[in-house]
Amino acid sequence: MQLVCRKTETNYPLKTLHWRSEAGHALDLEFANLIKPELVDIHKPSLWRYQAALPIVEGTVPISFGEGMTPLVPLEIDDVQVQVKLDFLFPTGSYKDRGSTVMISYAKALGVDRVVQDSSGNAGASVACYCAKAGIGCEIFVPAGTSAAKLQQIAAYGAKLCVIEGSREDTSQAAQEAANSTFYASHVWNPFFLHGTKTFAFEVCEQLGWQTPDAVIVPVGNGTLVLGAYLGFTDLQRAGVIDRMPKIVGVQAANCAPLVEAYRQQAPGPASVGTSPTLAEGIAIAQPARGEQILDAVRSTKGCLIAVSEDAIAASCSDMARRGLLIEPTSAVAVAGVKQYLQSLASDEELIVTLLTGHGLKAADKIGKLLEQ
Ligand SMILES: *Cc1c(COP(=O)(O)O)cnc(C)c1O
Which of 38, 121, 226, 249 is least crowded, fewest Cβ atoms below 10 Å from its Cβ? Predict the structure, then answer.
């Protein structure tokens, strides 16, 4: 197993402080792995049932709470039945635990005793949680303005919080300086995280009776879900379990949509766009580091990138809550995306899968404000 920079064709050993290549590109992971129905450890009701397809270094003992295998349930959205994966039902209240359980298990196996990470909230809470379980020291950089509930959650796990006055990008900068001397447990840069989020694809496929959906609709900021889904479905196709890729549809908030803009312009990398605040704080990423990879993944599956308005996000959030699904506004972006997809992009009888990424209790303040409107 090794870390590779696909752009410069250079390799890095696993035990390195390099969190990107010398040329500044994101690193990927190369290793032999196999996903086959008969290799799934069906006695494990967690994502570790797919261990044969996960990056496991010598000495790995999974740092796990039995996470994963979230329900996939049918739900009518605008009179069309879609399949919805309830990924807000994770130990920390967001699907980020898929990535953290794999990444922190790897860090523990390497003997890492301290990590830094930067996040607008959910990834930080998730990494802090798994570090608490692993007995690893953890410092989380967050931008000022992050939901109070998320900050309290990170602090409660015992992580050190560094609140940065400035943008999300300033926050990354500060964490990356700290990462010169400490393991950078970044959900954006560390490819182990993406090999955890790929279990979303495995679970969807298994829960559909090893079928491929036609379209998978997910929110996108830094792309841990888009890229995870892409990796997972690619593994499944390579292993011959499925015979085609689903269309991957990424949804952004119109107020911060550099990938949608690049898709419209047919540009290779994220567009520089003006941004304004959005209810979808979890995906308000103006400069996604893996932007080119995200665009490639979406295009190669014949998917697309779409933007949804603040009104549509708010309406979808309230609508879901009224139907018993209390999700955070960031998560409602996917629902608003499904509505838009159904209006203009879907063909008849498509099997559409989406997911609800984050629990509403994380953003009770914002949801309270929506109810007052
Ligand atoms: C992280 C996150 C996403 C997706 O984000 P990416 O930046 O694309 O990885 C979606 N919803 C919630 C609630 C999140 O925390």
Answer: 38
**Whole-number Å distance between alpha carbons of 356 and 371:** 20
Q: Which two tokens stand for residue 351?
A: 């099997």
Written in H, E and C, the secondary structure of 36-93 is CHHHCCCCCCCHHHHHHHCCCCCCCCCCCCCCCCCCEEEEEECCEEEEEECCCCCCCC
Pocket test for ligand 1, best of 126, 231, 330 (most atoms within 8 A of CB): 330
Ligand 1 centroid – CA 330 distance (Å): 7
Tell how far the Cα of 31 is from the centroid of ligand 1, in angstroms.
Answer: 26
Q: Three-class SS of residue 161?
A: strand
pLDDT in tens, 151-210: 999 999 999 999 999 887 889 999 999 999 999 999 999 999 999 999 999 999 999 999
Pairing of strands 2-5, 10-12: antiparallel
The conformation of residue 304, written as its DSSP 8-state character, comes to E
Reported pTM:
0.97
